[in-house]
Amino acid sequence: MSHPVRGRFGPFGGQYVPETLMGALEELENVWHEAKADPQFQLELAGHRRAFVGRPTPLYAATRLGEHFGGAHIHLKREDLCHTGAHKLNNAVGQALLALRMEKKRVIAETGAGQHGVAVATVAARFGLECTVYMGTEDMRRQSMNVRRMKLLGAEVKEVTSGSKTLKDATSEAIRDWVTNVRTTHYIIGSVVGPHPYPELVRDLQRVIGDEAREQYLFADGKLPDVVIACVGGGSNAIGIFTAFLDDKDVALVGVEAAGSGLQSGKHAASLVGGRPGVLHGTYSYLLQDGEGQVTPTHSISAGLDYPGVGPEHAFLRDSERVEYLAVTDQDAVAAFKLCTKLEGIMPALEPAHALHHAGVMARQFGPGGRILVCLSGRGDKDMDSVEGS
Amino acid sequence: MKAAEKSRLASALRADGDLKLVPYVMAGHPDRKRSTELAKRLAASGVAALEIGIPHSDPLADGPVIQKAGQAALENGMTVAACIELAGAVAGEGVPIVLMSYINPILAHDPRRFAAEAAQAGVAGVIVPDMPVEESEPVAGWLRSAALDTIFMVAPTTSEPRMDTVCEHSSGFVYCVTLTGITGARAELPTGLKQLVANVRKHTQLPIAAGFGISRPEHMKALRGVADAAVVGSAVVAEIDAGRDPSALVKTLLKACR
Predict the structure, then answer these.
(1) What does pLDDT average to over chain B?
(2) Residue B51 appears among annotated catalytic residues
(3) What's the mean pLDDT in A177-196?
(4) Contact (CB<8Å) A293/B104
(5) Of the listed B16, B51, B117, B218, which one is catalytic?
(6) What is d(CA A248, CA A284) in angstroms, rounded to the nearest whole number?
(7) Which residues of chain B lie closer than 8 angstroms to A172, CB-CB?
(8) What's the mean pLDDT in A314-330?
(9) Residues B45, A330: Cα–Cα separation, whole Å
(10) How many Å apart are CA A350 and CA A386, to the nearest integer?
(11) Do A18 and B166 touch (CB under 8 A)?
C-alpha cells in the first residue's frame, strides 16, 4: 500500500481514477522522478526553454497602469511572450520530453481557451508525435482561431458535445481516450489538476515562472513585491508563480477566480470561493457541485477559467491561508483587458485580465508605495471576438 | 484469501457449469417508475445478480450509452437516496443487488450514511469505478462495517503485484475489466481475455465477473468455463433507451450461458 501522504496536499489530491490508469500513473511518477534527477534531461529541458519557448520571459514595469491606479509599482511577468502566446508551453515541452522517455508516440490533451491545445499541438509537431486535442463545442466557437492553429500544426481536434461543451467535458473525454489507449498514449494534462502525479508534475514544470520572476524582481528592485497576483482556473500559472514565493512570508499571494456574471448569480467558475470539496477528474479538491455531488455548470467569459474544479494544491493553500482567493466578474475583466491594452500596448488574455483588475484594486489600496507583481499568463489576440462581443 | 461463501454475492456468482449473468440498469432511466419496473422484472428473470447504477454528471469510465442514460436520470431528478430506495424495492425480488456509483455522489451523501442506508435497503455490494484500493478506506471502511461487499476492479493493465492487492481488498467477487477502455458494447471480446481471467484466478478464490464490452450470446459462450459471471451493461441500457423491454435480450443471453 502507498504511503498515506503520497500525492496529497493536506487532505487534497489523490488518485480517483479507473483501475486501468493506475499503472500509467505509476509509470509517469517514476519517469518524472528519474528525469528530474537526470542532469541530461535537465540540460535538454533548459535548452528547449531557451531556444523554443523563449525563456526567460521579461519582467515588465507597467508604469502607465501604475500611474492610472494612483502611483503603485505594477510589474508584469510576461508569459504572454512565450512561444504560442501563453505559459502553457512550459508544461507541454516538459511533458513531451517525458512522453519520448516513455516511448509513447501519441499525446492527447484537453483544452478550454485553446492555449494548452495549441501548446501540445506545437510540441507534437516539434517532436514528431501524433496528437489529438479534445475541445468543447462552445469553446471551439469562442476560440476558433486556436482551433485553426491546432489543425495547421497537424493535430486532430475532436469536438466534445456532451455536458456543458466546455473544458470540463473536454477533460472527461481526454481521460476516456487515455483509458482506451493508455499503452501507447501519454495524456498531457494542461493544469495542476487531475490525479497524482499531475498536480506535482505540472507545478514542477511551471515553477520556472516564479523562479525567474523572483530573481528578476530582486534584481530590479532590491527587494520582493508586497503581493503577487495570478488568475486561477485549474491554477497552473498561479502555482507556477506562487511556488517561488511560498516561503517569503512577507509576500502576500492572491489567486483570482472567475466570478462570471457575479457570485450571487450562480453563473461563475469560482470553485475555491464558492465551492466545497469533492472529486472531479481524479482529484479531491474544491469543486462547484450540488448537494448530490453532481458537478454544476459554470460560466466565465474566459474559456480558460471556465472549469468547476481547481488544483488540489490551491485547495490546500486556501485552507492553510497562505494564499487568499477571491473572484472578479466578466465585466471587470473586460475593462482591465481594454485598459491594459490602451495604457501599456499589451493585450492580455481574458484570463490574466481578471488578475489585472484586482491589481488595480490593490494598487489603489496601497497607494504610491505599493509593489505589485502580476502573472500575465497569456496574450489576448484569441479573445478579440469575446471582448468586442461583450 | 477470504471465506468467500459467507457472501451472498459470492455464492450467487460462482459458476456451477453455467455462466452467471449480471445485467446493469441505470436507476431513474428512462424514468423512476419504469426503471423500477424493469429492474424488478430483470431481477426475477433468472439472473444471478443485478447491478444498479447511480447517475453521475461526469462518468469517466462510461461510454456514450451509459453517459446518456445517466444524464436522463439526473434530468429526472434522481438522487442517491432515490437510487437506494429503488434498489430496496428491487432487492425484494430476492436477487443480490450491487450498486455502482462514482465516488463523489457517495462523498456528498456521506459514506457512513450511504453504507447504512444501502445495507438497510438490502443491497449486497458496491462498486466504485473511480476508487482504486489506495483511495478506498474512507468509503470501504463504512461498507465493511455495514456488512456490504466492496467489489474492486482488475484491468488488463493491472500488474501482477497490484492484482494481489486488488483481490485482497475485494469481497463478493472480483470485477475483471475485459479491455482497456470505457463501457460500451463491442462486436468481439478481446483476445487476451482468457489469459487475463486465468491470471486473476491465481490471486483469488472469489468468483470473477467479466465486464465491459460484453453484449452478445456468443460472448456468453466464449466466457463459459472462463469467468464465473458476465456483466452486461450498455447493451441492456440501449434496449431500455430504445423503449424496449430488455427482458428479451436477457433471456437470449441467459440461454447462451447454459
Answers:
(1) 96
(2) yes
(3) 97
(4) yes
(5) B51
(6) 27
(7) 58, 60
(8) 98
(9) 56
(10) 9
(11) no
Phi, psi angles (nearest 5°) of residue B92: -60, -20
Reported as type and span, the H/E element at residue B35 is helix B32-43
B175: in domain: yes
Q: Of the candidates A19, A14, A10, A4, which has an alpha carbon nearest to the alpha carbon of residue A280?
A: A14
Decide if pLDDT at A122 tops 90. Answer: yes
Q: Which domains does chain A have, with CATH numbers?
A: 9-48+88-202 (3.40.50.1100), 54-85+207-388 (3.40.50.1100)
In chain B, the number of structural domains is 1
Q: Which helix (H) or strand (E) holds A189?
A: none
Asked whether residue A131 carries a pLDDT value surpassing 90, the answer given is yes
Tens digits of residue pLDDT in B3-47: 445 899 999 999 898 999 999 999 999 999 999 999 999 999 999
Q: Tens digits of per-residue pLDDT, A366-377?
A: 999 999 999 999
Closest to B200 in 3D by CA, of B161, B163, B165 = B163
- The amino acid that residue A236 corresponds to is S
- Our CA-based measurement puts residue A182 at a distance from the nearest CA of chain B, in whole angstroms, of 7
Question: Could you tell me if residue B14 is inside a domain?
Answer: no
pLDDT-derived band at A165, boundaries 50, 70, 90: confident
Of the listed ranges A30-44, A157-171, A186-200, the least confidently predicted one is A157-171
The pLDDT, as a whole number, for residue B5 is: 56
> Which grid coordinates belong to B186?
463491442
- State whether B180 and A291 contact (CB < 8 Å): no
Interface test with A, best of B75, B100, B130, B174 (most A CBs within 10 A): B130
Q: What is the pTM of this model?
A: 0.96
Letter string b/e over residues A150-167, b meaning 16 or more CB atoms within 10 A of that residue's CB: beebebebeebebbbbbb
Tell me whether residues B180 and A183 touch, CB distance under 8 A. yes
- By mean pLDDT, which of A136-150, A306-320, B170-184 is the weakest? A136-150
Contacts of B80 in chain A (CB under 8 A): 292-293
Is residue A197 reached through a cis peptide bond, with omega within 30 degrees of 0 on the bond before it? yes
Q: Which residues of A belong to the active site? A: 88, 110, 377
pLDDT at A1 over 80: no
Residue B46, domain CATH: 3.20.20.70
The pLDDT > 70 percentage for chain A reads: 99
Yes or no, beta carbons of A18 and B180 under 8 Å apart: no
For A143, phi and psi rounded to 5 degrees? Answer: -130, 50
Q: Is position B76 within any domain?
A: yes
pLDDT at A6: 78
Mean predicted confidence (pLDDT) in B167-196: 95
| Sheet (strand A12-13) strand order | A8-9, A12-13, A283-287, A276-280
Give the H/E segment covering residue B256. helix B247-257
Separation of first and last alpha carbons in chain B: 29
For residue range B63-107, list pLDDT tens digits in order.
999 999 999 999 999 999 999 999 999 999 999 999 999 999 999
**Residue A234 scores a pLDDT above 70:** yes
Q: Within 13 Å of residue A231, how many CA atoms lie on the same side as its CB?
A: 34
- Asked whether residue B215 is assigned to any structural domain, the reply reads yes
Owning domain of residue B174: 2-9+19-257
Residues A172, B58: C-beta atoms closer than 8 Å = yes
In degrees, to the nearest 5, what angle opens at C-alpha A312 toward C-alphas A379 and A11?
165
Minimal CA–CA distance to A203: which of A252, A247, A244?
A244
Please tell me the distance in Å from B150's CA to the nearest CA on chain A: 14
Q: Taking 60 as the threshold, does the pLDDT of residue B51 lie above it?
A: yes
B181 contacts on A by Cβ (under 8 Å): 20, 179-180
